[in-house]
């Protein structure tokens, strides 16, 4: 069924963590509905919006740093996580 993709342990952990985060966000939304808020992004967002934008931004940061610099994987991941944390907190 899933033979088309190379399922390694890091790949499985990555996808499981995203699904776990979506589950936590769903339960959080059910218990405490989110309110639109405007942060550093030029439009009002909800928790789910910020999570989605954070995932996309982190992916683009990874791709950009891999393509344009010779930073290590760890450095690139750290920069992407800092960017994601900023968007999650103040986005």
Molecular structure report:
It is a single chain. The protein is mainly α and 91 residues long. It has three helices and no strands. The chain has one domain. Helix 2 packs antiparallel against helix 3.
Number of helices: 3
Q: Which band does the percent of strand residues land in?
A: under 5%
- Based on secondary structure, the structural category is mainly alpha
- Global geometry: flat
Termini separation: 38 Å
Order of helices and strands: HHH
State Rg: 15 Å
In brief:
This protein is mostly helical and 91 residues long.
Topology record:
Blueprint: H1 9-31, H2 47-68, H3 73-90
Helix pairs in contact: 2-3
Key structural traits:
91 residues; mainly alpha; 3 helices; 69% helix; 0% strand; flat
């Amino acid at each position: 069924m899933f033979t088309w993709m190379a399922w390694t342990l890091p790949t499985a952990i990555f996808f499981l963590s995203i699904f776990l985060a979506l589950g936590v966000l769903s339960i959080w939304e059910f218990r405490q509905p989110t309110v639109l808020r405007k942060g550093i992004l030029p439009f009002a967002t909800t928790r789910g919006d910020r999570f989605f934008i954070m995932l996309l931004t982190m992916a683009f940061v990874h791709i950009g740093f891999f393509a344009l610099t010779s930073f290590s994987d760890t450095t690139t991941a750290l920069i992407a996580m800092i960017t994601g944390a900023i968007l999650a907190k103040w986005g």
